[in-house]
Amino acid sequence: MLVSLGVESTAHTFGIGIVDEKGSILADQRVSLRPKEGGILPREAAKLFSERGAEVLFRALEEAGVGIEDVDVISFAIGPGLGPSLRTGAVVARYLARRYSKPLVGVNHGVAHIEIGKLLTETRDPLVVYLSGANTQIIAYENGRYRVFGETLDMGLGNVIDTLGRAMGIPFPAGPKIEELARKGKNLIDLPYTVKGSDLAFTGLLTATKKALEKHPAEDVCFSFQEVAFAMVTEVTERALAHTEKEEVLLVGGVAANKRLQEMMETMAKERGARSYVVPMKYAADNGVMIAWTGLLAYKSGLRTSLHEPVNPYFRVDQAEIPWVKERGGGSGVP
Ligand code: AMP
Ligand code: MG
Questions:
Q1: Which ligand has an atom closest to residue 156 CA?
Q2: Each residue of 34-87: pLDDT tens digit?
Q3: Other C-beta atoms within 10 Å of 195: how many?
Q4: Which residues, listed in sequence order, are joined to residue 31 by a DSSP beta bridge?
Q5: Cα–Cα distances in Å, from 107 out to 16, 62, 255, 322?
Q6: Predicted model pTM
Q7: Within 13 Å and on the Cβ side, how many CA atoms surround 335?
Q8: Residues 6+ apart with CB under 8 A from 100
Q9: Is the shortest distance between the CB of 253 and ligand 1 below 6 Å?
Q10: How many whole angstroms separate alpha carbon 177 and alpha carbon 184?
Q11: Is the pLDDT of residue 137 over 90?
Q12: Given the DSSP bridges, would you call strands 25-32 and 73-79 parallel, antiparallel or unpaired?
């Protein structure tokens, strides 16, 4: 039974995951930067990762009850992400691969969000709605790649939510608190709704929402913001669903935790005769398990990464090779 160890370090979280070929999760250890105020400073994240990385690794091996010699493949997130964060994880992975003579596989972080979602929801060929801090993309498998059928033209939705939170004095990550306030809102304030073809733009909405805070109760502002932002995402998802004719919609990334968003997606999917799924919350946020699992799929398809390959902060999901995904999506990857 092949065992893969994955290193995640694209942004705020350093994670080590260990999985086997059947998709069993043997270990999941993480440490995250939680700034008291303001956003994530890349250098601070890298500092935390280099200080605590070894400890996270040892905890993961202990949790899995395996030695490093029992691991068959070392996987790591090679991009996209913040340069300093990415490089810290890459150093750990390259060191382990070299020191213990293990094959190395660099994984696209977005592809990993998709693959862990497919594994845990048992979806076969979903239209993926990937909503994290930095990313907002509607993705589906077509003709050998995960293709992007719509995306943000400016900010990622999670960053929009966190920036709004900062204006309200809510610490990072602001999503859960804004969701809670939104639930108490009653009045829909007029806010700009920006869909351009199959793409989205959020900065106009963000500016108007911050301005609305001067005149309206926070609950109404959060409620209105969510209604508009999530309706925009649902509209482009519906368009992509009509175009791709997929039968499953899968929400992944930290923003997928939002109940109102889940509800809107479910209603839309149902009306189109599709089923909607949400990645289990524990694996919606960044983690090493998704890297380990995707690394294992890549390894079994023969992909390898050289020790000299640099990280790629701008590695798009549609640039990644995914030979394990066959026509009709290839299933969750579990034999
Ligand atoms: P990720 O980058 O995938 O780790 O996702 C983190 C983002 O998810 C942050 O911007 C959070 O504010 C956001 N988030 C977490 N929980 C929620 C929620 N309940 N509603 C909306 N956004 C959320
Ligand atoms: Mg992520």
A1: 1
A2: 876 666 788 889 999 999 999 999 999 999 999 999 999 999 999 999 999 999
A3: 15
A4: 14
A5: 14, 24, 22, 10
A6: 0.93
A7: 8
A8: 68, 69, 71, 74
A9: yes
A10: 11
A11: yes
A12: unpaired
Give per-residue pLDDT as tens, 155-182. 999 999 999 999 999 988 899 999 999 9
Whether 254 is in the pocket of ligand 1, judged by its Cβ within 6 Å, is: yes
Q: How far is the CA of 1 from the centre of ligand 1 (A)?
A: 35
Give per-residue burial for 292-320: e unless 16+ CB within 10 Å, then b: bbbbbbbbbeebebeeeeebbbebbbbeb
Ion ligand 2 — residues with CB < 5 Å: 132, 286
User: What digits encode the pLDDT tens for the residues 203-245?
Assistant: 999 999 999 999 999 999 999 999 999 999 999 999 999 999 9
Tokens for 68? 């490093």
Helix (H, G, I), strand (E, B) or coil at 247: coil
User: Can you name the residues that pair with 250 across neighbouring β-strands?
Assistant: 128, 277
The type of residue at 133 is: G
Written as six digits, the tokens of 161 are 């939510």
What is the residue-wise DSSP string for 140-190? EEETTEEEEEEEBSS--HHHHHHHHHHHTTPPSS-HHHHHHHHHT------
For the Cβ of 233 lying below 6 angstroms from any atom of ligand 1, the answer is no
Among 161, 225, 262, 286, residue to substitute to test ligand 1 (most atoms within 8 Å of Cβ): 161
Binning pLDDT at 50, 70 and 90, where does residue 268 land? very high
Domains plus CATH for the chain?
Answer: 3-114+283-319 (3.30.420.40), 125-281 (3.30.420.40)
Residue that has been written with the tokens 């999901």 in this structure: 317
C-alpha 55 to ligand 2 mean position (Å): 22
Atom of ligand 1 nearest to the CA of 113: 3
At residue 72, the pLDDT reads 98
